[in-house]
Structures are given as structure tokens and as C-alpha cells.
Description:
Blueprint: E1 3-10, H1 15-28, E2 33-38, E3 47-54, E4 68-73, H2 76-82, E5 86-95, H3 102-105, H4 113-124, E6 129-132, H5 134-141, H6 147-157, H7 166-176, H8 179-190
Parallel strand pairs: 1-4, 4-5, 5-6
Antiparallel strand pairs: 1-3, 2-3
Helix pairs in contact: 1-7, 2-4, 6-8, 7-8
Pfam family, one: POR
Protein name: Indolepyruvate oxidoreductase subunit beta
Keywords: Oxidoreductase
Amino acid sequence: MSTNVILAGVGGQGAVxxxxxxxxxxxxxxxxxxxxxxxxxAQRGGSVFSHVRIGAGAHSPLxxxxxxxxxVAFEPAEAARQLPxxxxxxxxxxxxxxxxxxxxxxxxPAYDLPAIMSYLRxxxxxxxxxxxxxxxxxxxxxTAKALNVVLLGAAARAGALGPVTADDLADAVRATVRPAxxxxxxxxxxx
Length: 191
């Protein structure tokens, strides 16, 4: 049995670090883990996503369409973009803070956050959707840079990460994150 999680965002939001924290937390529990990252145009604000497969049933790093147990998205449009990978009754944990693409800001199709959130609610249902108030998290923590860890904590508490708990993630933070950021990330995890 495996747990399949997709972490998605745009460049600079910490999807790669979140993937490393989740994988390390699972490995410290003695669970087999496979990961794959696609970062492409991340340095230019493009899509970033990681596949994390936890458990003995994970034979390859990539999650097939309709096979993800959870999507943890640091940006709502990226959550919507990854929905084809979500299994029926899978869970989505997302930030409510948009990162408006350059194309929308320069006259391309508009970024319609209410429409995106409505689509997510209708696609996965209120029961399987956790929306994190990014502005409130930033006010509490004093920075938006730890939103990735806030979302991991929310996902763990919602049961979206399978056997990985918030305590497991806290241990991974202590072992992985640079010492100057450990306290911030622990506070973010517990938010």
C-alpha cells in the first residue's frame, strides 16, 4: 500500500523543500519513498511540482493520472492544474493566495481566483478541500516564505499525507532546514 502526494506551486514557493521534508519524514519512519520533481521554468515563476510516493507499493517515482491521494498546492491555479492526477475522493490542501502569471498581467487571460476556488470546491467537494488563509499565516509568522511548511502541517493534520504526521515533519525540519530557519519552520508547521 502506498500514499501518493503531489506538491505543486510556482518557482520560489518552496515546493522542492517541501518534497524533501515529506520524503525525509517518511524515510525516518522506515518507509520506502520515491520522488520526482519537475521544475522547468521555475526560476521564471513557472510551474513546479513534485511527486512523492510513500510505502511499499511505490515502485516508480511518478504518480499516474487518477492515482494521487492528495495534492498540496502552494498556489490555487496549480492545484487546479494538477487535478487530473487526483484519485476519486482524494484531498486537496491549497493556499488561497494567487500568484498571477505574467501573461495575465500583460493582457492575456485574466486570473480569476473566485472561479478557480469554485472549480476546486466543485471538483473535490468541501469535505476534501482544505484552504489555508495565506495572508493570516503571513501576519502570524511575519513572512510568506514559510507558507510551504504551513501547508505541509495542514495536510498532515487533515490526514492527507498517509502515515506521515506533523511530528514526523517537525523532526524532518530539524534535520533538514538550515539552523537559522528551524524555529520559523516549526512555528509554520504548528500554525
